[in-house]
Amino acid sequence: METLLGPLEQEVMDVSWRLGEATVRDVHDQLARVRDIAYTTVMTTMARLAGKGLLERDTAGLAHRYRPAVSREDYAQSAVGDVLSWLLERYPEPAAAYLADMVDDVDGVTLDELRAAVHRRRGAER
C-alpha cells in the first residue's frame, strides 16, 4: 500500500491538483492560509512526492516548478485498488462480506455495472 498518502502529502497533492503547476512557495502560501506550516516542510514533502512519481519537477528555472504526474482520478483508482487488493489478500472473507454489504446500498446502474464486470472477469478466467 505504498501509494497511500499521509495527511500532509494529501494536502500538498490537493493543492497541486488544484493549481496544476506550482512552486514550493505557491503550495506553501496556499497551505499557510489554513495551518501553521514551515516552507521547508512543504519543500521536503514535494520532493518526496516527486520521488514517489506523483509530482514532476522542472528544474530549468531558478525556482523548481512542480506539476502532478497523475490525475486525481488515476491516483484515487490506484489507491482504492491497492487497499482493496491488500484487504482481499489478507482478510478475504470479511473484505468480501463488506463489499457485498456495500453493493446493497448502491443504485441500480452501479449494481448493473458491477454485475457486468463480474461477468467479464469470469469469462476471461475460462
Automatic annotation (TrEMBL):
Gene Ontology molecular functions: DNA binding
Keywords assigned by UniProt, alphabetized: DNA-binding, Transcription, Transcription regulation
Keyword Transcription regulation included in the entry's annotation: yes
Keyword RNA-binding in annotation: no
Superkingdom in the source lineage: Bacteria
GO biological process: negative regulation of DNA-templated transcription
Family: Belongs to the BlaI transcriptional regulatory family.
Protein name in UniProt: Penicillinase repressor
